[in-house]
Specification:
The chain is α+β, with helices and mostly antiparallel strands. About 20% of the residues lie in helices and about 40% in strands.
Length: about 300
């Protein structure tokens, strides 16, 4: 593995998720943690009631704690109206463990080079299942002949593990939609689809929110060069309106390709929220110049829309 900024980023994020048992930053407590609070409070109440000498003051405090702990998870689990998810389902090109909540849907438009356009549509069910489709092509904008993708992409994701105080959220999924032009001679997109993947995500409060993501994926494109790839990324929000993100894919499956240089894929992105439903984004892709020589990266524009139904 070449020694590069992308590989250092990959190692740091994987270390943060797998080795450090407890982050120094304050995290939001999940419903699972709240249920543990209920059990602890109930156990304390029984102990206070059965163990002499018993004081009414201690029993009163314990009972109040039990009621508070009970009210929090119950109100969180039985919403009267659909909640709008704020979890990022992707960083730039790579997946996260984020999910759309039940009865949420989202649409992403990304304007690519060569007049290209990529469209993703997703819907969330039961807070643990997300399905969607994707399609696009090149020369959609401009005067050249339009070249559409050879097939519609399929997007499926299942939340396997919910995030807790110590444990990151984990999701398993599949995506057959790559980015850029489809190269018939190589049986792949310029940027391969994720294929089958497992992703882990952990969120912290640190002057806004800090999210770290890591995972492994296996693309089904390019039958002569299939292998597992490691990826990682970070997103940081600012003033709940702006966010910046960086992601890296070590690109093991790109080694030996005629259009890749074996440097991995390093991307940077920026997002700005417009109201509660829209996000406008700018992406700078392939900063490491794995495929081409860019001045500051392959620039794309992205629009995200999310709503409940």
């Amino acid at each position: 593995m070449p020694f590069s900024f992308g590989n250092i980023l990959l190692l740091v994020i994987w270390y943060s998720l797998l080795v450090i048992p407890r982050a120094l930053l304050t995290v939001h407590r999940s419903p699972l943690t709240a249920h543990r609070s209920v059990l602890n409070a109930y156990r304390s109440l029984l102990t206070a009631h059965c163990s002499p000498p018993t004081t009414y003051r201690s029993m009163f405090i314990t009972l109040c704690s039990l009621l508070i702990a009970l009210s929090s998870p119950l109100s969180a689990q039985t919403p009267k109206e659909p909640r709008l998810s704020t979890e990022p389902v992707n960083l730039i090109d790579l997946p996260t463990a984020g999910m759309l909540y039940h009865r949420n849907y989202s649409t992403t438009l990304e304007f690519l080079d060569e007049g290209g356009l990529s469209v993703n549509a997703r819907a969330g069910f039961f807070d643990r299942l997300m399905i969607g489709v994707a399609y696009g092509g090149t020369n959609i904008i401009g005067v050249q002949k339009t070249d559409f993708n050879p097939h519609i992409g399929v997007l499926v994701r299942v939340r396997a593990v919910e995030e807790t105080y110590y444990v990151p959220a984990v999701a398993l999924g599949f995506s057959s939609q790559g980015k850029g032009a489809y190269i018939d001679s190589l049986n792949r997109y310029e940027t391969k689809s994720a294929g089958f993947y497992a992703a882990a995500s952990k969120n912290f409060e640190a002057l806004g929110f800090l999210s770290i993501h890591a995972g492994i994926h296996y693309s089904l494109e390019d039958t002569d060069n299939r292998t597992f790839n490691l990826f990682a990324g970070i997103e940081k929000t600012f003033a709940s309106i702006f966010s910046g993100m960086i992601e890296y894919d070590n690109g093991f499956s790109l080694t030996g390709s005629s259009i890749d240089r074996g440097r991995g894929l390093l991307n940077i992105g920026f997002r700005a929220s417009i109201g509660n439903d829209f996000k406008l984004g700018l992406n700078l892709k392939d900063i490491a110049q794995n495929q081409q020589d860019f001045s500051i990266g392959n620039r794309t524009i992205q629009i995200d829309y999310a709503k409940t139904f």
